[in-house]
Write a structure and sequence with these properties.
31% of the residues lie in helices and 25% in strands. The protein is α/β, with parallel strands linked by helices.
């Protein structure tokens, strides 16, 4: 059962970042499916019923819009993994649920950090469909396959960390800036996480000629998404950056090494093949030692440590005493000379890996 959505009503909606690739000028419908469980990424029209932790919604253009009870918002369903905020799952039905991310994700909160208040709650009014009543999903808004160009794979850095808010995005932005200042065309992407525009926009501000995230690959969040899809979406984003003719690529994998999707994605051979060097972001010195040891045990080419710990000279000295890789702060990574050195080291790691592979073969 479905009904046409009045274009004037669509214009009044507060449409979130998670659905920014939707053409709102196209005819849309409101679809009612009874008690069916929504799917990850399904677009939904919902009414705000009670304000909680999220009082702002990040719109498609990045503006943070104040929310009011009674507002109608256009968002997407999804799960969320955020130890600093909410742990949320996909709802079992189209009943009342929670706004679990400012970028526009609806879920059912399972647990929350004690430092945050209860979530903003909403009442779904129906799923959003196309003119024929087919429910639209963020996957329908994905980029297509990248052009098949005979391009050499540019050097690719992976940034991973101990947890959310460990300094991964700052590390990516700083490295992008340093590489850009050295005269290179740089592409960047966040391949996992929860829909939010701040990170890709920061990458652009830092000098990236192209910046993408997993929403461009058709996902509102990546928690609870099958691993095969995460691999294919990561390669899709990497391929689109390659197609832009960039000289270097920096990819961020969200959350920490203990997050299941993060650990599994890192270890996939498809991801290993595109990785020339890994930078590890840590919040403290013990996390830095743990992360590097774990990555090294899995034969990942760790080039350096960065992250929040670099705000403390003492923490840097603690970490450096137990590490055989350098610790760099944001200012260091923004240096063209250091960026060039990291490129050289990444190339050296790649040569060693090829030689080892040839011997084993």
């Amino acid at each position: 059962m479905f009904a046409s959505l009045d274009p004037a009503r669509v214009d009044r909606l507060k449409a979130a970042y998670s659905v920014r690739n939707l053409d709102r000028d196209a005819p849309l419908t409101l679809v009612h499916q009874g008690d069916d469980q929504p799917k990850h990424g399904d677009l939904v029209l919902a009414e705000v019923t009670k304000l909680g932790y999220h009082t702002l919604l990040e719109l498609t253009d990045g503006r943070k819009a104040k929310l009011y009870v009674g507002d109608e918002i256009l968002v997407a369903y999804g799960a969320r993994y955020a130890p600093d905020h909410f742990e949320a799952e996909l709802p079992d039905d189209l009943g009342a649920c929670d706004l679990v991310a400012a970028g526009g994700v609806l879920g059912k909160v399972r647990s929350r950090n004690a430092a945050v208040s209860a979530p903003t709650t909403v009442r779904p009014l129906g799923l959003v469909g196309d003119q024929s009543g087919r429910v639209l999903n963020v996957s329908d808004l994905s980029l297509g396959a990248p052009p098949l160009l005979a391009l050499r794979k540019p050097p690719t850095f992976i940034v991973v960390g101990t947890s959310m808010n460990s300094g991964k995005t700052t590390t990516v932005a700083s490295l992008v800036h340093g590489l850009s200042r050295s005269g290179l065309r740089v592409g960047a992407a966040k391949v996992t996480g929860t829909a939010a525009g701040g990170d890709p926009w920061l990458f652009r501000d830092s000098g990236a000629i192209a910046a993408l995230d997993f929403t461009d690959a058709g996902m509102s969040t990546t928690f609870r998404i099958p691993l095969e899809r995460l691999v294919s979406s990561s390669l899709l984003l990497h391929g689109h950056l390659m197609a832009r003719g960039v000289d270097a690529i920096v990819l961020e994998i969200a959350d920490g090494l203990l997050q299941p999707e993060t650990a599994q994605l890192l270890d996939r051979p498809e991801i290993r093949r595109i990785t020339d060097g890994v930078l590890f972001a840590a919040a403290d010195s013990s996390g830095a030692l743990y992360g590097v040891q774990r990555l090294r045990a899995a034969n990942h080419p760790v080039l350096a440590v960065s992250g929040l710990l670099t705000a403390s000279p003492l923490a840097v000295r603690e970490a450096q005493a137990g590490l055989d890789v350098p610790v760099y702060g944001p200012d260091d990574l923004q240096s063209p000379a250091l960026a060039t050195e990291l490129l050289r080291r990444a190339a050296a790691e790649a040569v060693v890996e090829v030689e080892v592979g040839e011997v084993m073969a």
